[in-house]
Amino acid sequence: MIKAGIVGGTGYTGVELLRLLATHPDVTVSCITSRSEAGLPVADLYPNLRGHYDLAFSEPDVETLKSCDLVFFATPHGVAMRMVPELVSAGVRIVDLSADFRLKDLSVWADWYGMPHESGEWAEKAVYGLPEVARDAIRDAQLVANPGCYPTAIQLGFLPLLESGLVDPSRLIADAKSGASGAGRQGKIGMLHGEIGESFKAYGASGHRHLPEIRQGLSAIAQADVEVTFVPHLVPMIRGIEATLYAELKNPADFERLQTLFEERFRDEPFVDVMPQGSHPETRSVRGANHCRMALHRQEDSNIVIVSSVIDNLVKGAAGQAVQNMNIMFKLDETQGLSAPAFLP
């Protein structure tokens, strides 16, 4: 039985981790931390977990966390990088859901996150945890940097196109939309229902923190520098991301073999579903599930291939992918604890 701890349990990704791990047959959650809610029973804050946990939130304590086999960090940036070195030195394995270890260029990280990085050694050693690309490295990793939500949907959608070299890597566009839970659980006026209801807007169009992560991941896939234009949008729903991706085919005739290319690339991936060409994946079809669904399109007489990619930002975009990485790290069935279908309506 894997003894797991969660640092930062009161946000949406923290409670999603608790929900998924509650029925995982090979995991027991031994501690969950929150400075603001220390002493409060988990089920009092999250009534959906009544009967599943008798834990209370506790202050983060490194000595307590050292008794765990694995610790999930579901914290704001800047927290994990200060605690991880001591934990990994004690033999604890880490899945970090924050952005602290995703970028290899720490000067870029400092520019985007407004502080110097304090754990350069482990930033270099961290494995970027996109299972469909780095499964072998994840299996032996001590520290896994769980990908961001937008980067997950975008990288998976572009993956076969860049691996095959069929598109121009300098002309990629990612037009992505997310529900409000992507902004976290903190109280923000701009995220009140009265502010976002009946509205739809772009944000971060001049630059977003996920852009360098997306660029880094796509460049690694393409084995060449890529140029990608990424614009996120906020839509008035709770969960879900839809990324509409555009790439220019070097040879328009290649479109005829793309469906087969995508189906073959993801045939053995348990959490990627390539739908029939011309389909329109819906975010509700992955709500609460650890799946990415995608479909290919091409408009008449165009050399632009369009990929629609959908995920639940809290599951495949965060907590579900973290559990998937944990399963790989401990050589469990990769789908363990993640096999439930999406919930409708």
TrEMBL record:
Locations listed in the record: Cytoplasm
Top-rank lineage group of the source organism: Bacteria
Every Semialdehyde dehydrogenase NAD-binding domain range: 3-141
Active site: C149
Pfam families with a match to the protein in the record: Semialdhyde_dh, Semialdhyde_dhC_1
Pathway annotation: Amino-acid biosynthesis; L-arginine biosynthesis; N(2)-acetyl-L-ornithine from L-glutamate: step 3/4
Keyword field: Amino-acid biosynthesis, Arginine biosynthesis, Cytoplasm, NADP, Oxidoreductase
SMART domains: Semialdhyde_dh (SM00859)
Function as written in the Swiss-Prot or TrEMBL entry: Catalyzes the NADPH-dependent reduction of N-acetyl-5-glutamyl phosphate to yield N-acetyl-L-glutamate 5-semialdehyde.
HAMAP family xref list: ArgC_type1
Name this protein carries in UniProt: N-acetyl-gamma-glutamyl-phosphate reductase
UniProt source species: Marinobacter salinisoli
